[in-house]
User: Which sequence fits this backbone?
């Protein structure tokens, strides 16, 4: 698939100033300036993220109310329920808050609840409130959901149950009648950092309780590994407090992880230090698989388990769920690609809507993302759900998927989501009409360039710059994530050194040179482009840098993203 290349601009004066202060490569200074790191002080904070730089939790609206209500519950020996969503952010939120409260309060008076994905759906559920009422619970601490649960929180109040809401999703026009609502995205909340995930908001509540009760910060920081996993999995910006928490959480994952996290890493065969990328591709899918394929409660049980052998048993369950998830994901993706391949009309559309009543509801969102990798257009994957059809939608970068679905709301029973992803339910008889209307709305509003994948390139460098000192500074820019992505480079006018080859009929082993400097690299699933290297013409290569270890010897290599003949771009 042809891709657009976009090289980011930079400010020469800022780069010169940074180079003077930091004494690092001008190319690194260009990247820092693009990330709003423009002074020595901001660079120091960036390269050495300090927990002391976290904001005072009491700056968050309703924080004092939340702390007072919890201390009241402690004093009155009330039973408390920790409630959260079934994804990684929700289960880590619940596990950290539940474990923390068990340490600072009576563990016999604390319980947790995760709604079942298919029986109860997303967010606060009536079944969860009824469970609390039956157990005599009078306070629910709700994490990663709740800010839009106006009716259900009102229902809980009629049963004598208070709610503390810890959420990071955009609030609606009406807020629930809760004892406290912690959400920095409230219009009148002065909290300086707005991009915390649900687990991050829960961590700020735990921080406030730690301060109010004069507890040791050691207790609080023992859950940083869970916070880092939530930040990585929820794809929130890797800036500000998120970056500080992820940085220190990764250190804990690599030095002293919770038994459940360690068990997952061992099952995945992790031998070296974990990065955020490892968390996203190794830990997050196994945790998410619990809710996709079965019951996410066992993900919380994994995280709160202190016994190593019991933790391994829960990890085995999640590992098995993930294996089932991968099989379902692979099979359904193949089915969906076959449907598209056999439908010439569908191939010409600017959207992709596919349906099969036998597909597993838990993986349709993943399949939608896979289809975008092949066809790069707004995609919806649907399956049967009870008497109706339900599924997940995913967008291409830059296009507001939620607004397009909103325009089709007259054909839907339910819908929800955000800019890049959404879920929807409709009657079977409306499928054809919805498919046509969704195509019509998207075709009328999406710019053609958004249907071509874009590669954002941070800087143009020469191979002569790729040295160990350069790579070491790149490593210090971790953890990477949205708004602090792994730097992408372009090197122009490179030639095959004569030794590049195709591996396993799919990949390219690059050995290329520029001005007498030769480097090696790997390009996955690029064999179809190999002819571009064979004609002895110069090419421009886009890549990231990583380290390759072979027989104990480490070398820096290119991880090639794309390449083109030099004259064509």
Assistant:
């Amino acid at each position: 698939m042809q891709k657009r290349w976009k090289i980011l601009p930079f400010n020469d004066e800022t780069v010169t100033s940074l180079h003077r202060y930091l004494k690092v490569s001008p190319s690194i200074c260009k990247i820092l300036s693009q990330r709003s790191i423009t002074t020595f002080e901001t660079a120091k904070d960036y390269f050495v993220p300090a927990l002391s730089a976290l904001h005072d939790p009491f700056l968050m609206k309703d924080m004092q109310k939340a702390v007072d209500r919890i201390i009241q519950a402690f004093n009155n020996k009330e039973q408390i329920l920790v409630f959260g969503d079934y994804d990684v952010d929700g289960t880590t939120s619940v596990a950290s808050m539940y474990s923390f409260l068990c340490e600072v309060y009576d563990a016999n008076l604390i319980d947790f609840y995760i709604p079942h994905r298919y029986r109860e759906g997303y967010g606060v559920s009536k079944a969860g409130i009824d469970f609390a009422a039956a157990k005599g619970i009078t306070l629910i601490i709700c994490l990663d959901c709740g800010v839009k649960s106006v009716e259900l929180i009102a229902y809980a109040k009629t049963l004598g149950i208070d709610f503390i809401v810890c959420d990071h999703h955009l609030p609606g026009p009406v807020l629930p009648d809760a004892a406290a609502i912690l959400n920095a995205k409230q219009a009148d909340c002065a909290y300086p950092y707005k991009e915390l995930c649900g687990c991050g908001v829960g961590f700020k509540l735990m921080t406030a309780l730690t301060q109010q009760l004069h507890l040791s910060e050691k207790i609080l920081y023992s859950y940083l590994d869970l916070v880092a996993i939530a930040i990585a999995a929820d794809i929130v910006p890797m800036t500000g407090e998120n970056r500080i928490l992820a940085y220190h959480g990764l250190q804990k994952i690599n030095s002293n992880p919770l038994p459940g996290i360690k068990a997952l890493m061992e099952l995945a065969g992790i031998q070296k230090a974990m990065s955020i990328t490892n968390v996203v591709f190794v830990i997050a899918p196994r945790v998410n698989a619990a809710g996709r394929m079965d019951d996410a409660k066992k993900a919380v049980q994994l995280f709160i388990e202190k016994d190593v052998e019991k933790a391994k048993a829960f990890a085995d369950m999640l590992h098995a769920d993930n294996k089932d998830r991968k099989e379902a994901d692979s099979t359904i993706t193949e089915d969906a690609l076959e449907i598209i391949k056999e439908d010439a009309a569908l191939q010409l559309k600017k959207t992709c809507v596919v349906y099969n009543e036998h597909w597993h509801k838990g993986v349709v969102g993943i399949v939608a993302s896979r289809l975008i990798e092949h066809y790069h257009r707004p995609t919806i994957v649907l399956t049967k759900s009870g008497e109706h059809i339900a599924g997940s939608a995913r967008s291409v970068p830059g296009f507001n998927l939620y607004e397009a679905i909103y325009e089709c709301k007259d054909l839907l029973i339910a819908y929800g989501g955000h800019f890049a992803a959404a879920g929807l339910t409709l009657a079977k008889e409306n499928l054809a009409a919805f498919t046509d209307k969704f195509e019509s709305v998207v075709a009328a509003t999406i710019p053609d360039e958004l249907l071509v994948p874009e590669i954002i390139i941070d800087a143009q460098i020469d191979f002569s710059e790729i040295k160990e000192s350069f790579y070491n500074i790149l490593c210090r820019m971790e953890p990477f994530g949205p708004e602090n992505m792994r730097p992408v480079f372009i090197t122009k006018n490179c030639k095959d050194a004569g030794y590049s080859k195709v591996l396993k009929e799919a990949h390219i082993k690059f050995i290329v040179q520029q001005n007498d400097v030769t480097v090696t690299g790997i390009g996955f699933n690029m064999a179809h482009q190999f002819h571009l290297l064979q004609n002895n013409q110069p090419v421009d290569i886009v890549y990231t840098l990583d380290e390759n270890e072979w027989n104990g010897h480490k070398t820096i290599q290119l991880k090639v993203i794309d390449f083109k003949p030099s004259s064509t771009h």
